[in-house]
Design a protein that fits this description.
The protein is of the alpha/beta class. The chain has a single domain, classed as Vaccinia Virus protein VP39 (Rossmann fold), CATH 3.40.50.150. The chain contains eight helices and seven strands; from the N terminus they run H-H-H-E-H-E-H-E-E-H-E-H-H-E-E. It has helices spanning 7-13, 15-20, 26-36, 55-60, 74-86, 124-134, 153-165, 176-186, and strands spanning 45-49, 66-71, 92-96, 109-115, 135-144, 188-194, 205-210. A seven-stranded mixed sheet has the order 3-2-1-4-5-7-6, sandwiched between helices. Helix 6 (124-134) links the parallel strand 4 (109-115) and strand 5. Helix 6 (124-134) packs across helix 8. The protein is globular, with a radius of gyration of 17 Å.
């Protein structure tokens, strides 16, 4: 089975294994969620790109009005739906779609999140432009990305080759600098850049803001 043109098949295939995998650094994750909640208020609408099993959606739901989680994997979303029901969370909506879904209206969101998903997009500028369009003035974009371009070049090359061959979904070997430059081109200002884990391979969490008036 080739996954480069049908990445949803890859995520459906590994959905059970993915759901069973523990968070690598629980302490850092909890610190991050606590910090991100400082950007949230009870009247906010949030979109989570690539929500997978809905961990972040569920962990911030009580702090906002509405959370919409989107993903391309129907099986990951089914797991997310079950987990939201187990937590009695009624303000989380889960949809099998993408950021480019035209039903999402410009200027309709207060916060957009993207955790470890941006490296699967080929055109990161287009993604950031779309996020910027969907956010209200002053809206916040929170992202954490596997910046494989910052790491071992041999490993990065192998992952890219595997993506081209269809053994994995296509992977964009991004760097943190590329992300920051692309955010700036889209009209964002970075307001926070933090590593919540002390692990040597930890990624930065970037918090970027759309201008209050443009």
């Amino acid at each position: 089975m080739l996954f480069n043109h049908a990445p949803e098949k890859f995520w459906n295939l590994i959905s059970s294994k993915y759901a069973a995998s523990p968070i690598a650094d629980r302490s850092a994750y909890e610190t991050k969620i606590t910090r991100l909640k400082t950007y949230l208020t009870p009247d906010m609408s949030v979109l989570d790109i690539g929500c997978a099993t809905g961990t972040q959606c569920g962990d911030i739901a009580s702090n906002v009005k509405q959370v919409t989680g989107i993903d391309i994997s129907s099986k990951l979303l089914a797991i997310a739906e079950k987990r939201m029901a187990e937590r009695n969370l009624t303000n989380v909506e889960l949809l099998r779609t993408s950021i480019f879904d035209k039903t999402f209206q410009p200027g309709s969101l207060d916060v957009v999140m993207a955790f470890f998903v941006l490296h699967f997009f080929e055109d990161i500028d287009a993604v950031f432009k779309r996020v910027h369009e969907l956010l209200k003035p002053g809206g916040i974009f929170i992202s954490e990305t596997a910046c494989l371009g910052n790491k071992n070049k041999l490993m990065g090359g192998l992952l890219r080759s595997a993506g081209r061959l269809g053994l994995l979904p296509k992977i964009n070997l991004l760097t943190t600098q590329q992300l920051e430059q692309s955010l700036a081109r889209a009209g964002f200002s970075i307001v926070e850049k933090t590593r919540f884990s002390e692990r040597s391979d930890a990624e930065f969490t970037l918090v970027a803001q759309k201008a209050l008036s443009e």
